[in-house]
Amino acid sequence: MIHLEKVSKSYLAAGTRKVLMRNVTMTFPRGRSVGLLGRNGSGKSTLLRMIGGSIEPDTGVIRRKSRISWPLGFTGGFHGSLTGAQNARFVARIYGADTDDLLARVVDFAEIGSFIHMPVSTYSSGMKARLAFAVSMAVEFDIYLVDEITAVGDAAFKRKCAAAFNEKSGKADIIMVSHSPATIRQYCDAGVVLEGGKLVWHDDVEMALAAHDANMRAPDPSLAR
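Given the sequence above, the corresponding structure tokens read:
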């Protein structure tokens, strides 16, 4: 379970304060996979990172009673001066996993060869994404956070990523951001719409998609003066 209690978040942009969430209280229950919908720039990715713990709310608290992933494919948590292998072992120790087993799985999945023993700061963006996806798949979580399903590399590697994610999604819950209604329908059975600093829960994913479509046809409330 994930519970947001009176959570607010904003930031300054071009001298103007942009409010992403204002005094939001909501529970994401276990046993549901949730599509997170909203306009571009509404704060969906920020919300995922707050749930994952990499960003703190301005006010309020987020309570987590499950093993929650970082946003799938997120590379910002790696230490650039450490090698890919050292980063993988570090993650294994944090989550109480066997370090040798997790590293072996990462090496097999990431397919970056000898670069696994080089500092992450030397990696291309594609190699970082491969490592991040591999580490995400090597750890068993109760809830996976997904900010668009991204898979890098050739067609074979993309199929490998899709197969691994499908296997995980069959055993764990998902909170997913995607601009593809088909993807939301494929993986989610409920939805949350972020609009004007508020979150609205929809118990049916089709209702969430319809509400989001209606919002997109209306003026953006954040632009109102």
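Residues 20 and 41 are 8 Å apart (CA to CA). Try to locate this feature in the token string yourself.
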